[in-house]
Write a structure and sequence with these properties.
By secondary structure, this protein is an alpha+beta fold. The chain has helices at residues 5-39, 57-71, 88-103, 148-163, 192-198, 216-222, 229-234, 255-259, 297-313, 327-336, 369-389, 409-427, 444-448, 475-492, and strands at 107-110, 116-120, 129-135, 174-179, 242-250, 263-269, 271-280, 284-285, 338-340, 344-347, 353-354, 357-366, 393-402, 405-406, 436-439, 454-459.
C-alpha cells in the first residue's frame, strides 16, 4: 500500500490542476459572453464597437435570389414580364411581398394608393422612422430586378436582424415600402405611389384615365380600395415623422461593371419631364386626296420627332445665351441631356386611311434644371411653328415634371461606408474606393426627396441593360446589396 501513496498524491495534484483550468476557462467564457451580450445592444446604445457581422448567404443571397425569381414570374402577360399599376399581377405581387415582410418580423398593411408597407417600431416607436423602398410595378417586357431588388434586399437585411433577435433593438422605426407605381406605364403619370406618400401627387391624379378609359380612382375601386380626394391628402406622411429615405436599385448603366465593383453610391438624380404631343390633321382616303391638298399629321409628327432628336443632340445650336441660360448651362446639357420618343399612335390606324390624329410621348432628362426648362421652351415653340407651316394643329401637354435631386451628403457617406464594409467582407480584402455616380434614370427617391433627405445605392447589372428581359444581376451582387443594407442598419440604426 505504501507504494501507492506517491501515485495517489500525484494524481490528486493533476486532478486539482485540471479542475482549476476548467474553472478558469468557464469564467473566461462567461466574461466573453457577457461582453458579447453587452455589445449586442449596439443597435440601441453604442455604435463604437460593432461586432463582426457574418455574411448570411442563405438569407441575403440564396433566399433573396429565389424571391426575385419568384417575383419575376408574377406577370399579366404570357411569355414576358408586365406588371403595371393595380393590375391583377401587381396585386398578387403585393400579397407575396406582404408575406415576406411578415416573415421578416414586420407589421404590414396596404394604403389607399395600393402601396404595400411593412414596419417595425424598434425600441422607440415614436421616433422618426427610416423608410426604405422601391417599386413593385414594371415596364412592359421588363427585367426582374428593376424595383424588386430594392424591396427584396431590404427585407433580407431585416430578416437577418429578426432571426438573430436584434430587430426589436433598432433605435428607431424602420419601414419598408413597396410602391405601387413608379414606371407610369398604365396612366402615363409616374410616382403615383411614392408621390402620394410624399404629398406631391395632385388630387386631380385620381381622374387620369388609362387607354381603357379607367380612372386611377376606378382602378383602386376595382381592387376594393376606396380612395377619394380627402383620403389621398391624408396619405401624405408628416415630414416630422420621417428620418430619411433610402433606396437600393440596379444601376441601369455600365459604370459599375466597367470598374469591376458590385456597389456604388448615388450623388444625384437627373431631372425629368414627360410630354404628350397630339398632332391633328384632316382624315381622308389614302388613294383619293392629292398630296398637295393633304393636312396629314403623320409626316408632321415625324418632323417633330426629328426636330427633338436634333435639339437634344446639339443643344448649343438651338439655345440662345440669354437670361439664366449661360454657356455653363448649355455645356452641362451637352453632357447629360437625353430625349426619347417611346410611344406613338395614330387614329384610325388603318393602312388605307390618312390619319386624323397622331399622338406621341416625349421624355426629356438632364442634370441641370434650368437647361431642361430651356430645352422644353425651345422645343414647344419650334413644334408649334412646324405645325403652323404644315397646316395641322398640335398640342404639347406636360404629363410629368421632376427637378433634379441631390442626395444628402451625410447619408451618402454612411451608405458608402456600408457598401465598402460589405464588399470588403465578401472579398476578404480591401477592394478600393466605392464609386460615386449620377443617375440618369428616375427613381422613387425623386418624389420622396420632397418629404425627407434621401440616399441611394446602385447595384451592378450586366451590360448596363435594364427595362429588358436581358436585365441581369449576379447572385453575389444581390448578396452584396443585402449585406450593405444590413451593415448600414447595424452601424447607424
Amino acid at each position: 500500500m505504501a507504494s501507492l501513496r506517491p501515485f495517489y498524491f500525484h494524481n490528486t495534484n493533476i486532478i486539482f490542476c485540471v479542475l482549476f483550468i476548467l474553472f478558469f476557462s468557464l469564467a473566461f467564457s462567461l466574461q466573453q459572453s457577457l461582453l458579447l451580450i453587452s455589445n449586442d445592444t449596439y443597435l440601441d446604445i453604442d455604435n463604437s464597437e460593432v461586432p463582426k457581422t457574418e455574411l448570411f448567404p442563405e438569407i441575403l443571397r440564396d433566399e433573396a435570389v429565389g424571391r426575385l425569381n419568384e417575383l419575376g414570374q408574377v406577370s399579366d402577360a404570357h411569355g414576358y414580364l408586365e406588371r403595371t399599376f393595380l393590375s391583377h399581377a401587381s396585386v398578387r405581387a403585393g400579397k407575396l411581398i406582404s408575406n415576406w415582410m411578415e416573415d421578416s418580423g414586420l407589421t404590414t398593411w396596404v394604403d389607399s394608393m395600393g402601396n404595400v408597407h411593412g414596419r417595425v417600431g424598434g425600441l422607440n416607436p415614436s421616433r422618426k422612422a427610416l423608410l426604405i423602398g422601391s417599386h413593385l410595378d414594371t415596364v412592359i417586357d421588363a427585367g426582374k430586378f428593376d424595383g424588386s431588388l430594392g424591396i427584396v434586399s431590404a427585407l433580407s437585411a431585416l430578416k437577418v436582424l429578426h432571426v438573430n433577435g436584434r430587430l426589436e433593438k433598432l433605435r428607431r422605426p424602420v419601414e419598408v415600402i413597396a410602391f405601387s407605381d413608379e414606371e407610369g406605364v398604365r396612366f402615363q403619370s409616374t410616382f403615383l405611389g411614392s408621390g402620394a406618400i410624399a404629398g406631391i401627387l395632385p388630387v386631380s391624379s385620381l381622374h387620369i384615365r388609362d387607354k381603357s378609359d379607367v380612372t386611377v380612382q376606378g382602378a383602386l375601386k376595382d381592387k376594393s380600395i376606396v380612395t377619394n380626394e380627402d383620403s389621398l391628402l391624408h396619405l401624405k406622411y408628416d415630414p416630422e415623422s420621417v428620418f430619411a429615405y433610402i433606396e437600393i436599385h440596379i444601376e441601369q448603366g455600365p459604370v459599375l461593371e466597367s470598374v469591376g465593383l458590385p456597389l456604388g453610391v448615388v450623388k444625384g438624380i437627373a431631372g425629368q419631364t414627360r410630354l404628350k404631343v397630339t398632332v391633328k390633321g384632316s382624315q381622308g382616303h389614302a388613294g383619293t386626296v392629292p398630296m398637295s391638298m393633304r393636312q396629314d399629321p403623320m409626316p408632321a409628327a415625324a418632323e417633330l420627332i426629328v426636330l427633338l432628336e436634333s435639339l437634344c443632340r446639339y443643344p448649343e445650336n438651338f439655345i440662345s445665351y440669354s437670361g439664366q441660360c449661360d454657356a455653363s448651362v448649355v455645356e452641362s446639357l451637352k453632357g447629360s441631356l437625353v430625349c426619347t420618343v417611346g410611344e406613338i399612335s395614330s387614329w384610325p390606324s388603318a393602312s388605307n386611311v390618312i390619319p386624323g390624329q397622331v399622338t406621341f410621348t416625349v421624355d426629356i432628362r438632364a442634370m441641370d434644371d434650368l437647361g431642361r426648362a430651356a430645352i422644353i421652351y425651345e422645343l414647344s415653340n419650334r413644334m408649334y411653328q412646324v405645325c403652323d407651316r404644315r397646316s395641322v394643329s398640335c398640342l404639347v401637354e406636360p404629363k410629368h415634371d421632376a427637378n433634379a435631386v441631390i442626395c444628402d451628403t451625410g447619408l451618402s457617406s454612411q451608405l458608402k461606408s456600408a457598401a465598402y464594409a460589405a464588399v470588403k467582407k465578401m472579398a476578404g480584402e480591401d477592394v478600393g474606393e466605392v464609386p460615386v455616380l449620377m443617375s440618369g434614370a428616375g427613381h422613387d427617391a425623386m418624389a420622396m426627396s420632397h418629404l425627407a433627405k434621401v440616399g441611394m445605392l446602385f447595384v451592378r447589372c450586366r451590360g448596363g441593360i435594364s427595362h429588358s428581359p436581358e436585365e441581369h444581376v449576379l447572385d453575389d451582387d444581390v448578396w452584396a446589396a443585402g449585406l450593405a443594407i444590413l451593415s448600414y442598419l447595424e452601424t447607424q440604426m
